[in-house]
User: What shape does this take?
Amino acid sequence: MLPKLIEFGDFYLPTYGVLVAIGFLAGLWVTSSLGKRVGIDSEKISNLAISCALAGLLGAKLMMFVFDWDRYAQNPRDIFTLETLQAAGVYQGGFILAFIAAIFLIRSYKMPPLLTMDAFAPGIAIGHAIGRLGCLAAGCCWGARCDRPWAITFTDYTAYEITGVPLGIPLHPSQIYESVFNFALCYFLYRVFMKRPVPGTVIGLYLVLYSIARFVIEFFRDHAQDLIGPFSNTQWISVGTAVVGVGILLVIRKRPAGAVSNVSS
Assistant: This one.
């Protein structure tokens, strides 16, 4: 695709990085807009978003090291290479660590916990959707071999050098599958939030719906993850996050709706 957006000699601006940055800003804009509607301070939202983004980057890299431990154990120097720095990491590892960080930071900032997470959910979805387009441009997170008319074939040798994506082979556009789903998820969660549901509803739905989608999309991905039983590590994580989402929805189901509009920062 287009792993390098702009190139000057040995320096280049990675398309993936640019799209991830755009995704972060788009997600922050959506979250800030929703937060204002329910009285959450915009500065607190920005501080929380930046802190969680940094935690997410760390978590994504750590999970990548866990999943590829055999490789890094044999060649520890690979941890500090430019290739590792440019690698996207594992989204779910980033989300889990960012989620944990958010729990502590929300308490520290004295923000309404479930309502704040609800405001963030649509922003997370749109940021992820744009970020997956960055994966498509870079060639990472590629799909399994595909004989369907919508298969995509990578031909840029630079993409192969950076990510290892196979060239000249028709593959499932798994990045597009996930991106399209997340755009639709953002729209759906946004509409749900605007109806002022019980706090916790939107983040609960996000956890359940995204986890189901990721579980299914993994069947169309080509990666070297070990299987635990019939499923990959990522699929088992999806099961876990879906259970958390269901748990949130069950806990809040008896609370009165309309509480969102009465909560302030």
User: Anything to note?
Assistant: Residues 259-265 have pLDDT under 50 and may be disordered. The first strand starts at residue 4 and ends at 8. The CA atoms of residues 86 and 165 lie 14 Å apart.
